[in-house]
What we know:
The protein has strands at residues 3-7, 10-13, 18-25, 33-39, 46-52, 57-59, 67-72, 77-82, 91-102, 105-112, 116-121. Helices cover 0% and strands 59% of the residues. By secondary structure, it is mostly beta strands. It contains no helices and eleven strands. Strand 7 and strand 8 (77-82) form a beta hairpin. It is globular and about 45 Å long. The model has no long low-confidence stretch (mean pLDDT 93). The N and C termini lie far apart (40 Å).
Amino acid sequence: EAQLWEFGGGSVQAGGSxxxxxxxxxxxxxxxxxxxxxxYPGKEREGxxxxxxxxxxxxxxxxKGRFTISSDNAKKILYLQMDSxxxxxxxxxxxxxxxxxxxxxxxGLRAWGRGTQxxxxx
Length: 122
């Protein structure tokens, strides 16, 4: 069974930066898509950024130019560098791995981390 662990998160002031990491282990099928999602209280998870096995990346409009997704494929670690953070970025962030991407969503077999809270204060 696939296992994902997020690291990082916490509190930061608006305008600051934070980096999230996600270790991916034991994904039995090869995964072609890794992604970050976030979830506001009472809302559904929304895609923030994805990176496909070929290196193509996509971002939500709200984070373009501020967030950068990257991966270390050898170590199976996914990163999300978040700069110029805004109070509206406050949410619980989840990493995910899947056998495919569809826009900012996932296709096929997928696994999720448990999430890490990011809080941005004004």
